[in-house]
Amino acid sequence: MSKAEKEFFSTSEMAKILGISRVAVFKRIKSGDIKARKVGRNFVIQKEDLGEILGTTLGDKKRRLIEVAVRKTIRDYGQTLKLLGEE
Question: Are residues 47 and 63 located together in one domain of the fold?
Answer without folding.
Answer: no
